[in-house]
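Practice problem: predict the structure.
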Amino acid sequence: MSDKFVPQAFCIGQFSVLELKTASHKKLITGVVKIAHISDLHISGMQDRRQLGFLDRMLDHFNTEGYDHLVISGDLSNSANPADWKIIREKLVSHGLYQWERTTVIAGNHDLINLEEEMRFYNALNPLQRVRKKAFDRKVLEFCVFFQELITGEEQGNKAYPFIKIINYSSVKIAIAALNSVYPWYPADNPLGARGSISAGELRALSHAHALASLSDCFVIGLCHHAYKVYGTDSPIDQAFDWTMELKNRDEFLGVMKLIHARLVLHGHFHRFQSYGVNDITFINGGSFRYNPNCYSELLIEGMGSCTQKFITLPVKT
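Answer:
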């Protein structure tokens, strides 16, 4: 395990704690940092053997190809089941990737919202949004506690969004600034549980002077689950679908990404492997490992000014 220290951890008001850490990578590297990005695994228990076999194959590939870091941008589970989180954690452990400096994970809507449970009669008619929000916040905390070694690097520590992970490589210092974009299920405003929103508290915390100072000499990568862009269409039916998937406060999110000088933003949710630019920031959609378990996104970062990205497809497993 690499040596780590916590230069600063702070809380703004009642909102999430920022975890600021650095790590010295003990592996000798050539100057190019290799990051692999996957998303939307949607694992459905140990009976999901074929998909788990694909995951073993992909993780083996990451080790064989010498990737320095893996990012999983949400939806590890298909039904908000912690047993599925456990499966993913065990897979990462078995491949030597369950380490703070090797892997970053965040939650997706399928990790935090069990749509079937939310739509049950007694929940659907519950008018108390604050009660539902408290239950949702407990689920977020449960996810963060479960994966706290990858969030804080310790068995104890603050376990909430947003968090900043800073890793010192020989050629560049990379910062991953992670936010939770999952929004609680509400029958009118979020009927499918797939709309996203990043809390004002998280955005404010990431905009704090201490956070900005910690990022000043870093290659900054933003991270959330929801897409900045979905299809966009003139069809009323497709527009209705877009509405169910959208990030509600995407302009505010973009403003913070610009403020922290993010070069890239990684996300998932919208099951398409794609990259697109918004105001000089490159957004990269990790697609869906569930629907294409042979494809992933590769980032090659060399110094502060050089980054290349491409989607790689492994030979189809028969």
